Amino acid sequence: MAMLMAIAQIGLALLLSLNLGLGHPLAQAVLYEPELSYSEATLVNEDFSGQKLAKAEFAGCTLRSVDFTDADLRGTTFSVSWMTDVSFRGADLSNSMLDQVTFKSVDLRDAVLTDVIFLRSKFEEVQIAGADFSEAILDGAQVNKLCEVAEGVNPITGVATRDSLYCR
């Protein structure tokens, strides 16, 4: 079955490259495989602190008591995931996909969240002091809720959390 999937994927990539050109993002996306994937996994009591996990995939995951403190998570995908008691303190998540994620009791203090897509995500009891949300894409209701607790300055970028969220 895996062999058939691989053949179908290569065939689709060839078809797209002939029609669109090999350098076209759609042709490249079909051939893209993440270096590290935990997609659809349930992760409990895992320690990823300080690790280099750039471009890893955690899509569709359930994460409970997972530590990503000071991790390099640039370009990662956490789409459609559920997080409870997770720490991203001091982590770099710039250019990541965190859309449709439920954050409950999540520590985002001092995290770099620049250019992150958070659309349709839910934030409950999150800590965001010192987090930098510059150029992140959030729903208006999310911004209003986060502005209620926004404070501090990111120690890496020097940007105030309230300024990065455009709080009034």
UniProtKB/TrEMBL annotation:
It holds the Pfam family Pentapeptide. InterPro entries: 5peptide_repeat, At2g44920-like. This is Pentapeptide repeat-containing protein. It comes from Phormidium yuhuli AB48. The lineage of its organism: Bacteria, Bacillati, Cyanobacteriota, Cyanophyceae, Oscillatoriophycideae.
